[in-house]
Amino acid sequence: MNFAKRAWLNLIAKKGRTALLILVTSAIMLFVMAGLLIKSAANQATENAKDSIGATLTLSANREAAFKKMRESAASSDGQPAKPSGKPSLSMSPVKLSTAEKIAQLTGVESYSVAVSTSANAKSFDAITTSSGQMTGPMGGKGGASTGDITVSGVSSTASNANFSDKTYVIKKGRGLTASDKNTNNVVIKSELATENDLKVGDTITIKNAAKTKTYKLKVVGIYKAKSTASTTMGGGMMGGGDPSNTIFTSYTFANTLKGTKYKDTADSVVFTVTTPSKVASVKKAATKLISSKFSLTADDQSYQMVRQSMSSVTSFADKIVWLVAIAGTIILALIVVLMIRERRFEIGILLSLGEKRAKVIAQFFVELFVILLVGVGIASAGGQFVGDKLAAQVVSSAQTTTSSTSQLGGMPGGQGGPGGTQGGSRTGAPSGMPGQASQQKAQAKQAKLATKVTFKSVAILFGLGLAIILIAILAGAGGILRLNPKRILIG
Q: Are residue 313 and residue 386 in the same domain, yes or no?
């Protein structure tokens, strides 16, 4: 009788044993499939992050170089510190827009935005004051005569500002600023400031520069609102406007006008959007050649790195699932095959005594397990996505917690440790509180929605692994068949 036919008849005759083998094999294949799907989904999420999250390079004054120059200028000719005649002055060089335009032409740069920060004094309206604590200046010092009560944030467009792009601030009335507002006196003010002074879109407000020597009229084209009181509190005034509600947004050209004629065609910082995070290093290397040591380029691909780190943990877990289940499954099936051989010694002895070759006896066991494997792979293909989604949700949640804890231990938001960092004032040129946090939360949300999908490739890989498992299991149990002596079995 053909060994394949014997295998089929045996599976039908031993329904209980066949059901048990199908149950065990299906469980093994189900978890192997879940591991494969999670790994594939994690890899896909990392690839998608390159396009959806993006990365930026921020060009701003080199604070370390400025501090070094200040210390050198304060030293006497013999190298010893001179007695200070006054308060040391930190000179920060503004970024020339001509340099920014050259960098914007580099391959890999998608767009760029300009940010300028300064302060002014309210004239035709009242700035909002807070009773808690003193008004502070840019670096935490007490506000002096050169610091106004209104923070002016000059931008290329409000959409390019981190607070607006992260939806920390949203336009409630009117519109935001765009590139067409360049060289205009249009302004976007905060809802609290508008309510306090009964201002609406279309109204004109008057401010004075910090030195109170010139007066400017601004047209209100939009009113924005913070998404929560927490973001309002954290976005406190950095340039003298003690209350965050005193922050107004104008075109960077007007902000430069407030600062003085020598600041024309300059910026406090310029943020370049890189097409994909993988190009950040090459763009930064090329851009560094176009700037002097007075300036620095800071890469900000934190959101992408967070996704990659989190997905790396998920991929590692998925690999462990595949290997552990595959090894455990091989051992379990090998033990089952050995037990099957012991149980069917008499049957095997008769076949061998009738002249059946040992290879065909082993092939019969292979066919039996192969049929069971087909059923197991079918069940795993049907239920793998459900199990994979459940496991993925748990693993991603754990990975997010670990990644968030690690980034919090890294220092202040943005990883730059304070002013001048890509996530701080230098990036947006305005009090930003914690910009970038919302984009990190979006990245985490994308991870939380990590969805597995059964594909032909995953089924093919699963079938190949299953085939390898039953081959190893049969080879492990084949020794029992090869050692059997049909004469002794029949006599016994």
A: yes
The last residue of one of the domains, among 269, 300, 331, is: 300
The closest alpha carbon to 147, from 117, 116, 119, belongs to: 119
The pLDDT score that the predictor gives to residue 178 is 92
Q: From residue 307, how far is each of 30, 109, 423, 433 by CA, in Å? A: 27, 22, 18, 22
Looking at 300, 325, 349, the residue that finishes a domain is: 300
Q: How confident is the model at residue 184 (pLDDT cuts 50, 70, 90)?
A: very high
Is pLDDT above 80 for 231?
Answer: no
The domain tally of the chain equals: 2
In this prediction the pTM is 0.58
Distance CA 251, CA 116 (A): 9
Rounded to whole angstroms, the Cα distance separating 32 from 289 reads 50
Buried b (16+ CB within 10 A) or exposed e, 55-69: bbbbbbbbbebbeee
- The reply to whether 267 falls in a domain is yes
The residues with which 57 forms a beta bridge, in sequence order, are 272, 299
Q: Is the dihedral of CA 246, 88, 58, 309 positive or negative?
A: negative
Interatomic CA distance for residues 379 and 373, integer angstroms: 10
Same domain as 261, residue 332:
no
Q: Which residues pair with 298 in a beta bridge?
A: 58
Integer Cα distance of 133 and 307 in angstroms: 39
Tokens of 325: 């289940």
* Same-domain status, 335 and 415: yes
Of residues 274, 301, 271, the one with CA closest to residue 110: 274
Q: Round to whole Å and give the CA distance between 377 and 463.
A: 7
Band the pLDDT of 409: cuts 50, 70, 90.
Answer: very low
Distance CA 149, CA 121 (A): 5
d(CA 15, CA 278) in angstroms, rounded, equals: 56
By residue range, what is the domain housing residue 355? 3-52+307-491
